[in-house]
Structure formats: structure tokens, C-alpha cells
Amino acid sequence: MFAKTRLLLLLPLLAALSAFTVYQLPIQKLSASLTTKQVHKGKATTLKANLYYAAGGKMVTHFTHPKEYFLLTNNKGEYKIYDPKANTVEQSQNLAFSTDVTYFGHFLNNRLADMGLRNLGFTLYNTRFENTTTITEWQPQLVNASSALLVELVHENNLPIFIGYKDLKGNYMRKVFFYNYQKIQQVNLPATMTDINYLAPGDSVVSRTQYSNLLVNETAKSDYFNFQIPANAKLK
Q: 88-93 and 234-235 as β-strands: parallel, antiparallel, unpaired?
């Protein structure tokens, strides 16, 4: 039960973590500090971590609060969660954990126009303009009860500021806001993201992630880039 709860809390955060294509962009490695504040059923939780990405898709996220542990992910969706106090590790594979399908991955791989929706099987069916924003609407080619029927993507000054997912009844399943953009190398990245997941009527998880201390390439120096789980860690 604890593992499932932790994964539920991690998913909005993982959606905000970054992925990189070293052949297209000069960013070979990046480190950043992040703080995520989550509210669920009136209970607030604050997560603090430092992330370290190295070329090839490997990313190490070192959570420091409220509990220390490490999350190791790659572009195949393989992940390992290491608890240094208990010296235990749990591992599995889930595409939601892939470093290639995160929002920042879309920013860094210049997928701003569709935020990866075409690769996920969505088709553009409507475009409209409101004031200074461009709103595009997308539908999946294959629809099932668990998929979003409609995705709204809003751009302002050619930068995504909102993406919303609706169910078959037209109710929002999820809303994500991007703001406080910073230019890192040639890439514009949102330093703040707010993610609202609607779990059931009247029940939602609200996560706000803020990034700071963004360092790239030569300035990004840490032994954590090469972090390895101890060989004697016990498998959970």
C-alpha cells in the first residue's frame, strides 16, 4: 500500500522531470533543485529533491525531504527506488517513468507545438484563437474508457502554458500549467509547473513544482551523476 501511495504522489512530479536528446541539443548534463508541494484531501506534503541527468537518458533524483531516497530512471521506463537507511531497493518498469515522455523532454526535444501528442496517437481536429493565446484541441485515434477523449493545448508567444485532459463526458481529468519560463542554453524551460489530477468527484491531487539552481554541462558537477545502488542492497 505504501509503495502504491508513493507512486501516486511521484507521478505528477515525474511528469515534470526532464529528458534530453544529446544529438540535437548542447545540453549534455543538467542538475537542478526542486521543491514539490502537494495537497490531497486537505493534507499538504512537501517533497524536496535534487535531480541529475546525464547523456544517454539516465537520471538520478535524490529526495531529501521528508525522507531520503533515490529514484533512478532511464528512457526505457525502468526505475529503481533505493532507501539508503534500510538499504533496500524496489524496481520495475513503467512507461510513465520514462525520461523520454516527460513534459521537459518535450520542451528540450522541441516538441512545443504538440507536446508529444502526435507520438501518443492524438490527432489535431480544431484550432482557435483567444486574445493572445492559441488553443488547439486533440483527439486520440483510439478511444477507450480510460483514455482522454479530448486534450486542450494552449500556447502564448509560441510557448505552452496549459494542457488539459478531458474524459468522455467532457470533465477534466487533469490540468497542467507551465509558467515562469527561463532560458537555459537555447531552450525555454518553465521553472514552475502546477499539476492537478482529478481522482474522483471532489477528490484531486494538486502538485506545484518549482525548479532552482539549474546548472548545465561544465557547471553541473556532482558525484550523484554516477550514483550506483550498493550491490548488497536488499530487493523489496
A: parallel
- Cα 92 from Cα 169, distance rounded (Å): 33
- DSSP helix, strand, coil percent of the chain (3-state; round to 5): 15, 55, 35
pTM confidence score? 0.80
Containing 5, the helix (H) or strand (E) segment is helix 2-16
Q: Are 67 and 82 in contact (CB under 8 A)?
A: no
Distance from the Cα of residue 136 to its chain's centroid: 21
Rounded to an integer, the average pLDDT of 59-73 is 95
The span from the CA of 211 to the CA of 16, in Å, is 10
- Where does the pLDDT of residue 6 fall: very low under 50, low under 70, confident under 90, or very high at 90 and above? low
> Residue 161: what pLDDT?
97
Residue count (the chain)? 236
Which of the following CATH numbers is that of domain 2-235: 2.60.40.10, 1.10.1040.10, 3.10.20.310, 2.50.20.10?
Answer: 2.50.20.10
Place of cell 521537459: 104
Q: Which of 198, 30, 188 has its CA nearest to residue 109?
A: 188
Cis status, amide bond into 201, omega within 30 of 0: no
**Domain coordinates in residue numbering, the chain:** 2-235
Within a 10 A sphere around the Cβ of 50, how many other Cβ atoms? Answer: 16
Cα(188)–Cα(175) distance, integer angstroms: 21
